Amino acid sequence: MSLFLLSLAGKYNYAIYIVLMMIGFYGVIAKRNLMKQAISLGLFSTGLFLFYISMGVVEGGTAPVWLTQAADHSLKDPGPYSNALTHVLILTAIVVSVSTLAVALAIIVNIQRAYGTIEEDEIRAIEEREHPEENVV
Amino acid sequence: MSFIDFHLPALITLLPLFGGVISVVLGTLVKPRRDLSWGFALVVSWTTLFLVVRLLESVVTSATGVVTYNMGSWPGPWGIEYRVDHLNAFVLLVVAGISAVTTLFARHSVDAEIPRDRSHIFYALWMFCTCGLLGITITGDAFNVYVLLEITSLASYALIAMGKGRDRRALLAALRYLILGTIGASFILLGIGYLLMLTGTLNMADMHTTLMAIPNLEGNRTVLVAFAFLLVGLSLKMALFPLHMWLPGAYTYAPSAISAFLASTATKVGVYMAFRFLYTIFGHEYSFNTIPGHNVLLACAAFAIVVPNISAIRQTEVKRLLAFSSAGQIGYMVMGFAIANQDSMTGSIVHLFNHAAMKGGMFLAVGAVIYRLGSSHVQTFDGLGKRMPFTMLAFSLGGLGLVGFPLTAGFISKWYLIKGCLVAGYWPLAVLVLAASLLAVIYVWKLIERIWFTERPEGAPEVSEAPATMQIATWMLILSSLYFGVRGEFTAEMAGQAASFLLEARP
């Protein structure tokens, strides 16, 4: 048990990513308000960002930029770099996640206009009243 | 080699991408926009199809059977590498072909279902969606797959939500698809992340080589986690039972042309991704021998060909019926690649093509009915055979193909699939495939009886045959499914080549 905790402490950001993702996942499943579901979905992806960012960390590593030494104007390699690849990848994933959230919110606005509510239970009740013979979405 | 031929793989994705952007600009600048947008989309989609056919030719005639292209001249594994072999070329043909034909269909249908001032945006989204699907299929880079997958998904969420003019439930279906789709894509991204951690590369072929070099691979938990995440994510994307519940709503309430387009391409590309990840990255040795991936997949596939088909029988809305049937058909494809022998995989890949043609054709026929009668409830089909004979004949022939009637394309794929089951010794599955075909007989017959053997009820609205573009598009798909049912050599040979490529895990 203590060994498990110790290894967890060393990789705490991975533990946090899982916790974040699962909070988001819980929200998507358990919340009945569409807006809360969309926000939970955002949280879910945020966990993913943390995972990718943690992955690229190199101990003592800096940003992969060549720094100029002021004294003789020569370029000097400041030594170990973080893995920029994963950070660049997650930049793309952040853009994707933002757009997904935007589309989700746009759809929710339309649902509000069409049904007058964004509570899933109320929408379900409306649909069951209107289409009693069909199973609702 | 000419400029076009050299850059062919890149042009195939770039053409619809820029086409979409231009469509928005064009539609904003020029006012009577609906025919213009449609015409432009038609030109782009048919040109794309032409380029894909040309690429297919060069793949088949090349000595190695592989055409590669380095994006921006950065060689793999550092740059993004496009890699086309028999399998991708075949799936590219399906996607580009269906997109071209459904665009031809779309003119009147979109006029009726989409507000006129939005048609240029509608076609732009459609082109983005096509771009993403083609890109997923053509790329050899795992992260590129994720990005293009999200381009496709975002476009298709919006396209489905545009069905709100006909039925406001489209919005709910789109949101549900969005939530489940995003979770699926996130799982895929997680899986890719774990693979990246292990291998330090994103190039699929390079990933495979690095993975195989890892000592004690079967005991490596990181690979196992990556495999599990990818399997769940991909199953969500291809709507494999029990993760198919987003599909019926999405396909039912989407605009008619989009239902046909997505039903015959989106889940198929999902199946293609599964092929790529399980065979090209993990290798079939790891996926099916080292860890029993096939047990999970076969169990899901067995339920998938039974449960959604039973749900299909109970449906009263024809579009929803077809959607459930699509979820059932995915089971056949997954079963084929999970059994993992030459015959079953050939069956799976051929079915991918055949089902796209048949189901696409059927959705188009239903789209024509919706255009004329405004509904796709089963009762609207009563006696429709006498009023819209050509459309209904196409619909019925597609239905027979779904059952797997001899001389239709569905027969060829089931033949290979059953042969594969028997070769592998899974005879209960072979029986199950036949039994599930009987379920298809029930729901197809239910419709055929209404169409041809029921009198049109008193007071039903007068209808005439669908417009020419709709009929031509529908018949193009149905005839191709019949043609490849009678002459199955081309598809079977192509699929057989692809299957042996995957099984030998040639780089």
Q: Strands, helices and their partners?
A:
The complex is a heterodimer of chains A (137) and B (507).
Chain A (H helix, E strand, L loop, with lengths): L1 H9 L1 H19 L3 H22 L11 E2 L6 E2 L7 H32 L4 H11 L7
Antiparallel strand pairs in A: 1-2
Chain B lengths: L2 H4 L1 H22 L4 H28 L5 E4 L10 E4 L1 H28 L5 H20 L3 H20 L7 H31 L4 H9 L8 H17 L8 H8 L2 H26 L1 H8 L2 H22 L3 H22 L2 H32 L15 H15 L5 H16 L2 H27 L14 H19 L2 H16 L3
Antiparallel strand pairs in B: 1-2
Helix pairs in contact in B: 2-3, 2-5, 3-4, 3-5, 4-5, 4-11, 4-15, 4-19, 5-6, 5-11, 6-7, 6-11, 7-8, 7-9, 7-10, 8-11, 9-11, 10-11, 10-14, 11-12, 11-14, 11-15, 13-14, 13-18, 14-15, 14-17, 15-16, 15-17, 15-19, 15-20, 16-18, 16-19, 17-18, 17-19
Provide an overview of this structure.
The complex is a heterodimer of chains A (137) and B (507). Chain A is mainly α. Chain A has a single domain, classed as Helix Hairpins (Orthogonal Bundle). Chain A contains five helices and two strands; from the N terminus they run αααββαα. Chain A has a two-stranded antiparallel sheet. In chain A, helix 1 (2-10) packs across helix 2 (12-30) and helix 2 runs antiparallel to helix 3 (34-55). The longest helix of chain A is centred in the C-terminal third of the chain and has 32 residues, at 84-115. Chain A is elongated. The two termini of chain A are 46 Å apart. Chain B has a domain at 293-507. Chain B has a two-stranded antiparallel ribbon with strand order 1-2. The radius of gyration of chain B is 22 Å and the shape is globular. The chains are: A mainly alpha (137), B mainly alpha (507). The A-B interface holds A 25, 28, 34, 37-38, 41, 44-45, 48, 51-52, 55, 85-86, 89, 92-93, 96, 99-100, 103-104, 106-108, 110-111, 114-115, 123, 127, 133-134, 136-137 and B 143, 146-147, 150, 153-154, 157-158, 161, 164, 168-169, 171-176, 178-179, 182-183, 186, 189-190, 193, 196-197, 202, 249, 253, 316-317.
